[in-house]
Structure formats: C-alpha cells, structure tokens
Amino acid sequence: MNDTILMTILVAANIVLIMFLVIPSMLRQRRERRFAEALRPVGSDASPRERVYTPATALVDDSPAPARTDTLTGLLLPAEWTRILGDEDARIRRYGRPATIVLIELDGLDRLVGALGQGAGNRLIPAVADTLSRHARGADQLARLDVGRFGILLPETGEVEAVNYVERVRSACDLWLESGLISLRLAIGWAAPPVGGTLADAIAIAEERVLAEVGRNVRPVPASPAPAPRPTTDLAGWPTTA
C-alpha cells in the first residue's frame, strides 16, 4: 500500500515538473524559432549561394538630409531656392499667374571687410537678411545666393507691385548702412518673366539692373584740396601772402 502511494506521489511530481519546467522551455524555444524565421533574409529558403540579402540601407536611410538654409542668416541656400523656382515656373506655365524675382547686392561689402575684417561682414549680413525677411510676406521665398547677395521670389506679384517691397527694403536699410564708418548701399534689381519666358529669364534681367545700380552707387573720389598759400612777412614784420 505504501509503495503504491509513493509511486503515485512520484508520478504526480514528475507531471508537475514537466508542467513547470519542460513545457515552458519548449514554448520559449518555439517562440525563438518563429522570431528567427521572421528575421530570415529574403530568399533564405534557397541554397546559401542563391540567397538574396536586402541591404540595410534599403530598409532605413540613415544619411543626413541635405541642408536647406544658410547657417549665418537662416535664409534658403541657392540649391533649395532654385528648386522652389522650378516649382513656381511650373505653376506659372499652368495657371499664368505673375511672379517677380528681386536680386539684392550689398554694395561696398568688400570695402567693409577689407577695412574692418570678416567679423564686421558677418555681423552686417544677418542684419540685412533680417530686414529683408521682416518686410517679406509669408509666401515669399528668400535666399542668400552669395557672400553679400540675396534673392527673393515674390509669388503672385507683378513687376510694378514689386516696387512696394523694393522701396520698403531700400528705405529700411540705406539710412543705417550709409551712416557707418564704411558707407554701403543696396543695389537692387527686379524683373518678372517676359511673355513666354521663365524665371531664369527674369533673373538675367534683374542681374543687369543690379549691375547698373552698382555702377550708379560708385561715388567719385574727391580731388585733393589745393594747398593753402604760404604766409610770409614784409619788411615791417607783418604777415602777408605770396
């Protein structure tokens, strides 16, 4: 009788051991096998030489996105501005809507940098960019095209209407630009695309007008004053002029 009871207890203990140790281990191994199958490369059922492995770069692109804005001014970089101009050109062709390009050159920047150093230019350029941005609308696209050159796309704006923006910017900048130790001015050119033309044509026209303004902004160097007559004295010792 005692042997029967003992045998029953041992069988029950083995069953409990199987339930709490063996079965969970089997389930864990099954989950791990399924997880490994889910991670198996494409074509893993084929032979090792025939397997096709998907590169990691095709799944996740970790390459940094190209920069869109200038670090000094926060304005668009030339490449991004050019891309936006392409989109605007397509819109103009499709709907026939107006747009104007404004080019602005900081005339005299090279003289400022030559006299006071690059730091002076780096302090001035963001101030000009901020003025251009404050007088622009939300839809306008501003870019820094070169060291002291800026480009502005004015959508839904004809060449005549663009004068309002140009004059606001000019009056806001010229007063404090001319008051410094090195006199500077804005040379501004603007143009809308000609009939049947593109924004690239407008840029070419605006460029010619900027160069014309740069020529007008050149100030003649004043001639050296004539030397004052040298004083002499007469026989009585009174000063006279020669």
Your description of this structure?
The chain is an alpha+beta fold and 242 residues long. The protein folds into two domains: 1-45; 78-217, Alpha-Beta Plaits (2-Layer Sandwich). The chain is 50% helix and 14% strand. The chain is built from seven helices and six strands, in the order αααβααββαβαββ. Strand 2 (141-146) and strand 3 form a beta hairpin. The protein is elongated.
Q: What number of structural domains do the residues give?
A: 2
Q: Strand portion, in percent?
A: 5-15%
Question: And the CATH topology of the largest domain?
Answer: Alpha-Beta Plaits
Widest beta sheet: strand line-up? 2-3-1-4
The N- to C-terminal Cα distance equals 154 Å
> What is the makeup of the main sheet?
4 strands, antiparallel
Rounded mean pLDDT score: 79
Molecular shape: elongated
Query: What Rg do the Cα atoms give?
Result: 39 Å
Number of H/I helices? 7
The parts where pLDDT drops under 50 for at least 5 residues are 41-61, 219-226
Q: Tell me the name of the CATH class of the largest domain.
A: Alpha Beta
Number of strands: 6
CATH fourth-tier homologous superfamily of the largest domain? Reverse transcriptase/Diguanylate cyclase domain
What is the annotated CATH architecture of the largest domain? 2-Layer Sandwich
H/E series: HHHEHHEEHEHEE
Helix content: 40-55%
The structural class is: alpha+beta
Write a brief caption for the model:
The chain contains seven helices and six strands.
List the helices and strands and how they pair.
Layout: H1 2-38, H2 56-59, H3 78-95, E1 99-107, H4 109-116, H5 118-134, E2 141-146, E3 149-155, H6 162-178, E4 185-191, H7 199-217, E5 231-233, E6 239-241
Antiparallel strand pairs: 1-3, 1-4, 2-3, 5-6
Helix pairs in contact: 4-5
